[in-house]
Amino acid sequence: MDIRPARLNDAGQIQALIFAAADPEHNEDLDAQGRERFIASNSLDAVSERISRPDFLMLCCHADASIVGLIRIKRPDAIDQLFVSAAYRRRGIARCLWLEAKARCEREHGQKSFRVRSSTMAVPLYESFGFRLAGAKCRDRGVAYYPMVFSPEASL
Protein backbone atom coordinates (compact mmCIF):
# COMPACT_ATOMS: atom_id res chain seq x y z
CA MET A 1 0.00 0.00 0.00
CA ASP A 2 1.45 3.32 -1.14
CA ILE A 3 0.02 6.77 -0.31
CA ARG A 4 1.11 9.71 -2.42
CA PRO A 5 -0.22 13.02 -3.77
CA ALA A 6 -2.57 12.72 -6.74
CA ARG A 7 -1.15 13.48 -10.19
CA LEU A 8 -2.97 14.78 -13.24
CA ASN A 9 -2.60 11.42 -14.99
CA ASP A 10 -4.52 9.85 -12.05
CA ALA A 11 -7.69 11.82 -12.82
CA GLY A 12 -9.46 9.05 -14.74
CA GLN A 13 -8.84 6.42 -12.04
CA ILE A 14 -9.83 8.90 -9.32
CA GLN A 15 -13.07 9.75 -11.08
CA ALA A 16 -13.89 6.05 -11.56
CA LEU A 17 -13.20 5.35 -7.87
CA ILE A 18 -15.42 8.25 -6.76
CA PHE A 19 -18.38 7.13 -8.87
CA ALA A 20 -18.01 3.45 -7.94
CA ALA A 21 -17.67 4.17 -4.22
CA ALA A 22 -20.40 6.82 -3.97
CA ASP A 23 -22.88 5.16 -6.38
CA PRO A 24 -24.74 8.44 -7.01
CA GLU A 25 -27.67 6.73 -8.75
CA HIS A 26 -28.52 4.78 -5.58
CA ASN A 27 -27.08 7.03 -2.86
CA GLU A 28 -29.66 7.78 -0.15
CA ASP A 29 -28.03 11.13 0.63
CA LEU A 30 -28.60 12.52 -2.89
CA ASP A 31 -31.91 13.65 -4.34
CA ALA A 32 -32.20 14.46 -8.08
CA GLN A 33 -30.59 17.88 -7.64
CA GLY A 34 -27.84 16.37 -5.48
CA ARG A 35 -27.10 13.68 -8.06
CA GLU A 36 -26.74 16.32 -10.78
CA ARG A 37 -24.40 18.37 -8.59
CA PHE A 38 -22.37 15.29 -7.62
CA ILE A 39 -21.96 14.17 -11.24
CA ALA A 40 -20.99 17.66 -12.43
CA SER A 41 -18.56 18.28 -9.57
CA ASN A 42 -16.81 14.98 -10.25
CA SER A 43 -16.44 15.29 -14.02
CA LEU A 44 -13.01 14.45 -15.38
CA ASP A 45 -12.30 18.16 -15.90
CA ALA A 46 -13.38 19.00 -12.33
CA VAL A 47 -11.24 16.22 -10.83
CA SER A 48 -8.23 17.32 -12.90
CA GLU A 49 -8.73 20.94 -11.89
CA ARG A 50 -8.82 20.08 -8.17
CA ILE A 51 -5.67 17.97 -8.46
CA SER A 52 -3.90 21.07 -9.78
CA ARG A 53 -5.21 23.56 -7.22
CA PRO A 54 -2.91 24.45 -4.33
CA ASP A 55 -5.88 24.96 -1.98
CA PHE A 56 -6.66 21.23 -2.16
CA LEU A 57 -4.61 18.35 -0.82
CA MET A 58 -5.49 15.13 -2.62
CA LEU A 59 -3.79 11.90 -1.60
CA CYS A 60 -4.22 8.51 -3.28
CA CYS A 61 -3.67 5.02 -1.99
CA HIS A 62 -2.31 2.54 -4.52
CA ALA A 63 -2.55 -1.23 -4.35
CA ASP A 64 -2.29 -3.79 -7.11
CA ALA A 65 -1.31 -1.02 -9.61
CA SER A 66 -4.63 0.80 -9.09
CA ILE A 67 -5.91 3.70 -7.03
CA VAL A 68 -8.01 2.07 -4.31
CA GLY A 69 -8.55 5.05 -2.00
CA LEU A 70 -8.37 8.81 -1.91
CA ILE A 71 -8.77 11.69 0.47
CA ARG A 72 -9.21 15.30 -0.54
CA ILE A 73 -8.89 18.17 1.90
CA LYS A 74 -9.84 21.75 1.18
CA ARG A 75 -6.88 23.33 2.93
CA PRO A 76 -6.38 23.78 5.68
CA ASP A 77 -9.16 21.98 7.57
CA ALA A 78 -12.10 20.53 5.62
CA ILE A 79 -12.26 16.93 4.45
CA ASP A 80 -13.97 17.23 1.10
CA GLN A 81 -13.89 13.60 -0.05
CA LEU A 82 -12.79 10.26 1.33
CA PHE A 83 -13.42 7.16 -0.75
CA VAL A 84 -12.16 3.58 -0.69
CA SER A 85 -12.94 0.97 -3.30
CA ALA A 86 -15.51 -1.54 -2.01
CA ALA A 87 -13.06 -4.42 -2.60
CA TYR A 88 -10.49 -2.75 -0.32
CA ARG A 89 -12.68 -1.59 2.56
CA ARG A 90 -12.06 -2.71 6.15
CA ARG A 91 -8.30 -2.87 5.59
CA GLY A 92 -7.40 0.41 7.29
CA ILE A 93 -6.96 2.36 4.05
CA ALA A 94 -9.32 5.19 5.01
CA ARG A 95 -7.56 5.55 8.39
CA CYS A 96 -4.12 5.62 6.74
CA LEU A 97 -5.29 8.26 4.26
CA TRP A 98 -6.80 10.35 7.08
CA LEU A 99 -3.69 10.12 9.26
CA GLU A 100 -1.37 11.07 6.39
CA ALA A 101 -3.57 14.01 5.34
CA LYS A 102 -3.91 15.16 8.95
CA ALA A 103 -0.13 15.00 9.47
CA ARG A 104 0.49 17.02 6.30
CA CYS A 105 -2.02 19.69 7.33
CA GLU A 106 -0.46 19.88 10.78
CA ARG A 107 3.06 20.25 9.32
CA GLU A 108 2.14 22.69 6.55
CA HIS A 109 -0.52 24.80 8.29
CA GLY A 110 -0.30 24.02 12.00
CA GLN A 111 -3.85 22.70 11.67
CA LYS A 112 -5.16 20.63 14.60
CA SER A 113 -8.94 20.83 14.16
CA PHE A 114 -10.85 19.54 11.13
CA ARG A 115 -14.41 19.41 9.83
CA VAL A 116 -16.35 17.27 7.43
CA ARG A 117 -19.83 17.06 5.97
CA SER A 118 -20.20 13.32 6.37
CA SER A 119 -22.46 11.09 4.34
CA THR A 120 -24.85 8.98 6.37
CA MET A 121 -22.79 5.87 5.60
CA ALA A 122 -19.48 7.43 6.73
CA VAL A 123 -20.54 8.76 10.16
CA PRO A 124 -19.29 5.65 12.03
CA LEU A 125 -15.98 5.80 10.15
CA TYR A 126 -15.38 9.43 11.07
CA GLU A 127 -16.39 8.71 14.67
CA SER A 128 -13.72 5.99 14.74
CA PHE A 129 -11.19 8.71 13.72
CA GLY A 130 -12.26 10.87 16.68
CA PHE A 131 -14.74 13.15 14.90
CA ARG A 132 -17.92 14.12 16.74
CA LEU A 133 -21.32 15.16 15.40
CA ALA A 134 -21.67 18.94 15.40
CA GLY A 135 -25.36 19.08 14.61
CA ALA A 136 -28.34 17.27 13.15
CA LYS A 137 -28.61 15.94 9.62
CA CYS A 138 -28.61 18.84 7.13
CA ARG A 139 -29.49 19.20 3.47
CA ASP A 140 -27.78 21.60 1.06
CA ARG A 141 -28.77 21.81 -2.61
CA GLY A 142 -29.90 18.21 -2.78
CA VAL A 143 -27.19 16.64 -0.63
CA ALA A 144 -27.86 15.34 2.89
CA TYR A 145 -24.97 15.30 5.34
CA TYR A 146 -23.99 15.34 9.00
CA PRO A 147 -21.67 18.14 10.17
CA MET A 148 -18.78 16.66 12.14
CA VAL A 149 -15.68 18.12 13.80
CA PHE A 150 -12.34 16.77 14.94
CA SER A 151 -10.56 18.58 17.71
CA PRO A 152 -7.70 17.19 19.82
CA GLU A 153 -9.25 18.77 22.92
CA ALA A 154 -12.56 17.01 22.31
CA SER A 155 -10.93 13.59 22.13
CA LEU A 156 -9.28 13.84 25.57
> What structural class should be given to the helix and strand makeup?
alpha+beta
Unreliable segments of 5+ consecutive residues: none
Q: Kindly report the average pLDDT value.
A: 94
> Would you count the extended β strands for me?
8
> In percent terms, what proportion of residues is strand?
25-35%
Query: Sheet with the most strands?
Result: 8 strands, mixed
Percent in helix = 25-40%
Oligomer: single chain
First-last Cα distance: 31 Å
**Number of helix segments?**
5
Order of helices and strands: EHHHEEEHEHEEE
Q: Measured on Cα atoms, how large is the radius of gyration?
A: 15 Å
Apparent shape: globular
How are the elements arranged and paired?
Elements: E1 2-5, H1 11-22, H2 32-41, H3 44-52, E2 56-63, E3 66-74, E4 78-84, H4 93-109, E5 114-118, H5 123-129, E6 132-133, E7 138-140, E8 143-150
Parallel strand pairs: 4-5
Antiparallel strand pairs: 1-2, 2-3, 3-4, 5-8, 6-8, 7-8
Helix pairs in contact: 1-3
Explained architecture:
Helices cover 35% and strands 29% of the residues. The protein contains five helices and eight strands. The longest helix has 17 residues, at 93-109. By secondary structure, it is α+β, with helices and mostly antiparallel strands. The protein has helices at 11-22, 32-41, 44-52, 93-109, 123-129; strands at 2-5, 56-63, 66-74, 78-84, 114-118, 132-133, 138-140, 143-150. Strands 1, 2, 3, 4, 5, 6, 7 and 8 form an eight-stranded mixed β-sheet that branches.
